[in-house]
Specification:
This protein is an alpha+beta fold. It has five helices and 14 strands. The protein is globular. It binds 2-oxoglutaric acid.
Length: 283
Amino acid sequence: MRTLSKDEQNFYWNQGYLIIKNVFNEHEVAAMAAACDEWKKFGKLLGRTWRDRNTVIWVDKDEQNETMVRGMQWPSYHDHVMDSIRRDERLLALVEPLIGNHLKQIINQVHWKKPGSQTSWALHRDVRSRRPFEAFRDLATSYVQTGIAIDPHRVENGAMQVVPGSHKDCSNNQFDHEGVSFVPEYDDDPRKIDLIMDPGDVAFWTPFTVHGGGFNTTAGMDRRLYINGFVIAENCDRGELVWDHGHTVPLEGEQALIQCEHIHEYEHPVYPADYHMSTAVSD
Ligand SMILES: O=C(O)CCC(=O)C(=O)O
């Protein structure tokens, strides 16, 4: 099984990101794309942002005032394709040298950028979304975010951007208060690069790495990224156990507390009127 070499591990810790090519094959990518198409249809049918416990579909209007799906969280409670990919042992084999094999998952998310859309994620550090702060210990060395390219990621369709080395520009204890948000001061940072990926490639980044992305300016190329975030189980009070000392754990029973603070009060799906992609703390 493909794992990370020492050089790749060093690259990740030094640069704050890494790309591994060809982790998933074309059939697996096609299956993810088809699953996403179904979720997109479902989102359009709903016509507005929708939540059931940890599962959220972000539905919005595009520039032509047409209903569009910008992303979703936790398809894996309901979708065996997305579920099997998130706990595929090839992902574990790549993450394990960085944070071990007893892991919780706190992010399971798809980002859509449809052709011509103005969807983007301004530069930020994911640490801003790790709330409450005290639920996440030793974040810098305990948490790895992964992103699987479902479509080709190119500059023109809004590939994710990272600022290599930016995770070293700050320290953990700078973030023990509210108010950490976007970091526009990195917009013109000469270190900033586009993460060019082919379908099936996987990107890795740390919670302190500055990243984000631009618009999809193409006429016909979707840009979907399947994001799964893993954390050393002992160092996090939130999330679903995904790997129990190397043994995969299915999503069964009551959903865990992750980001939905009122999860155990939900009796049926809700349409939170004030929940909007641009303001959601989600990544
Ligand atoms: O989808 C993208 O291009 C950006 C992803 C991102 O910023 C995030 O997951 O935090």
